[in-house]
Amino acid sequence: MPLETPARVVQELAAHGYNADRQAVTLLANQSDPQRAIERAVETAPDDTLVLSADHVRAILDTEPTAGDYSNSTPQNTGSKEGSESSNTNPSVSTGDGSTKPQQVSEGSPVETKGLQDRGSEPASAAGSTQPTSTAVAASQQPSGTDDSGSGTSPERSITVSGDISSTGTGAYEDFVSVFRDRYEKLAGQLRGRVNHRPTETIENMTPGSDAGLIGMVSDIRTTASGHWLVELEDTTGTFPCLVMKDRDFASEALTLLTDEVVAVEGTLADDGGILFVDTFHFPDIPRTHKPSTADRKVEAALISDIHVGSEEFRADAWSEFAAWLHTDEADHVEYLLIAGDMVEGIGVYPGQDEELDIVDIYDQYERFSEYLKEVPGDMEVVMIPGNHDAVRLAEPQPAFDEELRDIMSAHDARISANPSTVTVEGVSVLMYHGVSLDEVIAELPEEEASYDRPQDAMRHLLRKRHVAPQYGGHTRVAPEAEDHLVMEEVPDIFHTGHVHKLGYGSYHNVTMINSSCWQSQTDFQKSVNLEPDVGYAPIVDLQTLDLTIRQFV
Ligand code: D5M
Ligand code: FE
Ligand code: ZN
Asked: Cα(376) to centroid of ligand 2, in Å?
């Protein structure tokens, strides 16, 4: 394994049971033979050392005739550029100082003067108008792609879809163990290079009062009698209690935690060693340096969800207006249609649903949906994933529609994939996830952190946790699998969800977030839970610039 990057040096040291401070890691990574330098550093470390210091590394390098000259910080090998970059590119650390606030999207010159940063609760400033409302929001930086194709000679379309699972889970206890173990491994891997951490079993034996850090899955969160937060973190060696004092400026971070997410903490062990007083939280997070990819030509995608065909409240009028618009010159560049679940209303989804069904047979609902899909121009590329109203298992990840349903929906030759899936459209990666966990995030977090009026806030928390459905056992059903397919291993360029029937958009560390409203008026059930849906909006993304335009069709 090449060891030219700090992350790899950290891994190698961890394999020997050591951490090192950041400067020491950089010194080792800059060696022409990092492997040998690490071995020497480890061999000569004092017995009780857990963390290798830069001084120690310098001392052994000074006695090493072929080692680099550190008084002159010239990189020793080609890996050192990458090394020095990544040593200071910690993804955002949540210190409660506001550093993880969503990045404002106003940078890119909104067309309207309302100062659209991200989308709040007021859909359609032009509500009531029968014309489509158009609101452009620049949600990205400059495009990185270059248009060398010349206008009029469009390169071929390119689209790939990944994430389609063929379920391997048996539902056995071992599958739950392996899915959570895999989650821990994947997310701990994202945190390891950034935190000086030890396994919990080692921390239990450390000197009381010393500094310590650990990476764990949140197994419990409770308030103490005096109003502090006690967060129990679990890793593969045990659990350890971590106390967040209520008067610390980052204490509110504890309120954003969900059970089963993976975080890292650093702090000081109590005098009796049995608890860690937290000084900092670290989330897997999206690196601030993320640069979204863009298409090489002018091409657009419409991102929608929650069509609910078969419901009495399905808005056929709005749908047909949208489909008709797609045939107009204005929509010439809209070549892709991404649908993030709830194609149909389904049956037996909530109590009393049958009284509001227009079509009572689930297959007839898909037949009708297919007819509506045919209104869309035949040359559009369509991608569909299921939602909780669709006829696939509820537990996530939800597999793609089966053969019978694919046959019914074959009209458009649509790409049909699992929930969640990543679809890469002309280089732009879109993480499509129906969004059932948004209910959970909104229910668990304080109102100012996540609400139905601003689904993009809940989406931002999922991005920070690098997991689409962190909490197990509530609204979201997680399927036992060998692997956790719900971890965001790669940073998406666009995060597309639906489910809550509210329009919301924004940008977080240059990831464009879009929650795409619905095509169904308020149901009695939604009335009973006070849900006022946003109906008939189509967010359109320019894939070359990542600018977003919201159109309304009611
Ligand atoms: O979800 C539409 C919205 O309605 C979503 O935010 C959840 C909410 N909803 C749906 N079912 C329930 C139940 N049983 N309790 C509370 N809230 C709910 P959709 O998936 O389209 O039904
Ligand atoms: Fe829905
Ligand atoms: Zn839904």
From this structure: 20
